[in-house]
């Protein structure tokens, strides 16, 4: 075991043996910051030693990218093939897949890229197996499907922990924290709303990272972990859901038990599928679509009725500029103004500019220079 891992283990032990109360909260904050820093170092070291890794850089395409994360042989490749018609190799032995295999799924008008990757194992975040290359791919995804099968449903938490250790935060919004380093003046704190963290805790955590002077702005309540994440940076906030494969191999009772157990553990019920038989695959596709958050935009050419038949499918939060980029290479350059009818504007035919954020069902006209 590397000395970095030993150090992490030691501090984690100490943390476990420290009871939280007002008197220990500073010490606990310091320990957590230490662990986060060491882990960050370990992950960075693992990433560096990996080189780029042949077959691991895949160009993003489509309206969103989904990655299938799971232990070896849970059926990631079989699922990719079922969803996209790709022919990723499948077999009954572990580590059949050794590179990233992309496929394209079309569902409800959206084109969604699905990435099949090698199996993840415990310790992956620290570089075990092909962990480092695999994690680098996962970090770029718009959505993670955590795939288990009916034989390992009790170990989904291991995958979740690996993602966490690799700086991936699933199903939580990015905490609104800004840390601006300054030359002098110590640590100054500004808060919006009630914040449980106090200045002393923040000073202690920053000091662990040798930051003695900074202007800190926190909007909304945050935990010590959130603050440490903001200090270390490079965290990725990605939605995720759990699917359990190979349900064709168990009876109804065992199926219910798995659903109950996972729902209790993660607060969301898993989607039970069979990548072989296609059972519940449509529900899985719907879940992908919903989690990626697509909206429909109806284009209306100047002086003509809107096309209500074939909406443009874009991610929620998309701006007029995003739509321009989708439609034509030089639309942004030639852009004069746009008009919008619908939920994102106060009145019909309202004039908007490129940064305007669109809403589901909006009708949009783009006026360009010739
Ligand atoms: N019964 C059953 N078997 C399945 C199902 N999906 C996959 N399998 C089998 O499980 C084994 C592993 O499938 P793969 O698709 O290779 O699994 P993987 O997760 O890609 O594996 P690695 O690439 O090695 O990590 C193969 O023998 C598949 O035929 C399913 O829904 N039901
Ligand atoms: K396999
Ligand atoms: Mg595979």
TrEMBL record:
Start and end residues of each OBG-type G domain: 64-293
Keywords associated with the record: GTP-binding, Nucleotide-binding
Pfam short name (any one): MMR_HSR1_Xtn
Coiled coil ranges: none
Domain TGS: 293-368
PROSITE patterns xrefs: G_OBG, TGS
Membrane found in the keyword field: no
Designated name of the protein: GTP-binding protein
Naturally occurring in which organism (per UniProt): Methanocalculus taiwanensis
